[in-house]
Amino acid sequence: MSAVPTSEGAAPAPAHKLAFFPREDGSRVPYEVFSSQEIYDLEQERIFRGPTWSFLALEAEIPKPGDYKSTFVGDTPVVVTRSEDGELAAWVNRCSHRGAMVCRNARGNASSHSCVYHQWSFDQRGNLLGVPFRRGQKHMTGMPKDFDPKCHSLRQLKVESYRGLVFATFSDEAPTLPDYLGNEMRPWVDRIFHKPVEYLGCTRQYSQSNWKLYYENVKDPYHASMLHLFHTTFNIFRVGMHARSLPDATHGLHSIITVTKNEEETSAAYKQQGIRSMDDGFRLEDESVLGHVKEYDELTTNHIQTIFPQLVIQQIHNTLVARQLLPKGPDNFELIFHFFGYTDDTPELRELRLKQANLVGPAGYISMEDTEATELVQRGTRRDPKATSVIEMARDNPGQQDSNITESLIRRFWVGYQQLMGF
Amino acid sequence: MDKMEQMLLWFELHSLQERYVSVLDNDRLEEWPTLFTEDCEYGVIPKENEDMGLPVGVIWCNNQRMLRDRVVSLRHANIFEAHSYRHMTSGLQITPVDADTVDMLSNYVVVQTRANGESQVYQAGRYEDRVVRTAEGWRFQKKRAIFDTSRVQTLLATPI
């Protein structure tokens, strides 16, 4: 018998929560959510295998029957394919026999997929096609009589596409994809994906920080002119801008931030400030990197839209990107920038998109600092899991949506996160 | 081209490559654009895009002014951790196109050292260059750094 009193017979302790958020409005976030392995593992279960839809690919990446791409839902390796009938499918990249990864290529085209270990083969949807020596050979026995190939498919995910964006879910509880995107977000997805797109390639970036720090970053219009000094350094005045910061109404996990030029005010205001901008400081020798061909109803320079948990849709000037955010353990994430244009781009517009790719991605003039900032937070908070951040900007005006000096979207995100995680 | 001319050409282009590397590795970024022609093209491109014939890179400039803009931005606008590069190059192949134009192919490895003093292989890849003879000497008309390394650690500030 131990001398230490036990809780046996006493009232059960309150359910243990891995993280304690001291306020209900998301304005205080315990730093342990950025470094705890236990919380990370629970996120894989409740978020990435929970009732959410994870972005996998643009349909334009896998246009032909048999095309496939290896990717992830959370940190689970999955393969997204287009089958012979043109439909989309996705399966966990783990052989149903002994667990080896079946698909070893990043991308390709195949009518079937075989595991190299014992040559079990699967169709494009992940159904088991064949098992070598299933019926044995000569006096050697083969698989048991009750072996049913139909019971040994690869684990298949539910896949849906919305306007060429391919999502998958592990969960039967997830709403339909359009309902998941919600009424507030769909018009903004429609805005970018209103006509067929062409995939232009990707850039990949790895950050030694927690994936949610990047989510905070893309819901944080407050940092934009503080951390990213490109516009100010080159005296590029952004006057007459109209801002939006909108969450989705269901759970607050999705959001959109826009910055839009008021076309009438802009030219006059620029002229007024022209003298000052000539005075001092630096000027770009080639300003086409910030050129802007109007493509949509309003002249929005920045459209940053998060679709939880692993997509950020971005339009900055004429550069269009679907950013895929992939957690790699509590301390790392990968960010994949999928660049695209429209199939009907003129050669001039296509060149402008490629030139403006210099603005974003790992070497982007107005984005390279983001991963630097998230790494600073990771390093700064690791030793103090119970301490919290202070997320107060515009807290007194929670309904305001026409501002970019606000942290309201971050607070909404954490409230939604707590609900999903049971914190 | 006789043997002496070949040796001279190899010597001149090898010197250009060594100067290019020295400029980047010893924080003389302002000299970097001067090694290119005014109508140059410079790109840092993931191999996975290059292999698929896709155009996107992490940096893409199609004139020398854009190179100067990048240097000014790095010096005065962008925020990143202090770091240094050491380029190792090998396998230089030289293919003359005409008397004043040569294609070059070589390998590179960039070891990056960040503020904490740790050195890591930051990027491995190949240079595909076109150089032209100018009044100032050989200059890059085209330089494409096609990197095998699948992802960029944290960020890419200093050119490759």
From TrEMBL, chain A:
<keyword id="KW-0479">Metal-binding</keyword>
<keyword id="KW-0223">Dioxygenase</keyword>
<keyword id="KW-0408">Iron</keyword>
<dbReference type="InterPro" id="IPR015881">
    <property type="entry name" value="ARHD_Rieske_2Fe_2S"/>
</dbReference>
<keyword id="KW-0560">Oxidoreductase</keyword>
<dbReference type="Pfam" id="PF00848">
    <property type="entry name" value="Ring_hydroxyl_A"/>
</dbReference>
<dbReference type="GO" id="GO:0005506">
    <property type="term" value="F:iron ion binding"/>
</dbReference>
<comment type="similarity">
    <text>Belongs to the bacterial ring-hydroxylating dioxygenase alpha subunit family.</text>
</comment>
<dbReference type="InterPro" id="IPR043264">
    <property type="entry name" value="AhdA1c-like_alpha_C"/>
</dbReference>
<dbReference type="InterPro" id="IPR036922">
    <property type="entry name" value="Rieske_2Fe-2S_sf"/>
</dbReference>
<keyword id="KW-0520">NAD</keyword>
<dbReference type="GO" id="GO:0051213">
    <property type="term" value="F:dioxygenase activity"/>
</dbReference>
<dbReference type="GO" id="GO:0051537">
    <property type="term" value="F:2 iron, 2 sulfur cluster binding"/>
</dbReference>
<dbReference type="InterPro" id="IPR015879">
    <property type="entry name" value="Ring_hydroxy_dOase_asu_C_dom"/>
</dbReference>
<protein>
    <submittedName>
        <fullName>Anthranilate 1,2-dioxygenase large subunit</fullName>
    </submittedName>
</protein>
<feature type="domain" description="Rieske">
    <location>
        <begin position="53"/>
        <end position="168"/>
    </location>
</feature>
<dbReference type="InterPro" id="IPR017638">
    <property type="entry name" value="Anthranilate_1-2-diOase_lsu"/>
</dbReference>
<dbReference type="Pfam" id="PF00355">
    <property type="entry name" value="Rieske"/>
</dbReference>
<dbReference type="InterPro" id="IPR017941">
    <property type="entry name" value="Rieske_2Fe-2S"/>
</dbReference>
<dbReference type="InterPro" id="IPR001663">
    <property type="entry name" value="Rng_hydr_dOase-A"/>
</dbReference>
<keyword id="KW-0411">Iron-sulfur</keyword>
<keyword id="KW-0001">2Fe-2S</keyword>
UniProtKB/TrEMBL annotation, chain B:
<dbReference type="InterPro" id="IPR037401">
    <property type="entry name" value="SnoaL-like"/>
</dbReference>
<dbReference type="Pfam" id="PF13577">
    <property type="entry name" value="SnoaL_4"/>
</dbReference>
<comment type="similarity">
    <text>Belongs to the bacterial ring-hydroxylating dioxygenase beta subunit family.</text>
</comment>
<keyword id="KW-0560">Oxidoreductase</keyword>
<dbReference type="InterPro" id="IPR032710">
    <property type="entry name" value="NTF2-like_dom_sf"/>
</dbReference>
<dbReference type="InterPro" id="IPR000391">
    <property type="entry name" value="Rng_hydr_dOase-bsu"/>
</dbReference>
<feature type="domain" description="SnoaL-like">
    <location>
        <begin position="13"/>
        <end position="142"/>
    </location>
</feature>
<protein>
    <submittedName>
        <fullName>Anthranilate 1,2-dioxygenase small subunit</fullName>
    </submittedName>
</protein>
<dbReference type="GO" id="GO:0051213">
    <property type="term" value="F:dioxygenase activity"/>
</dbReference>
<keyword id="KW-0223">Dioxygenase</keyword>
<dbReference type="InterPro" id="IPR017640">
    <property type="entry name" value="Anthranilate_1-2-diOase_ssu"/>
</dbReference>
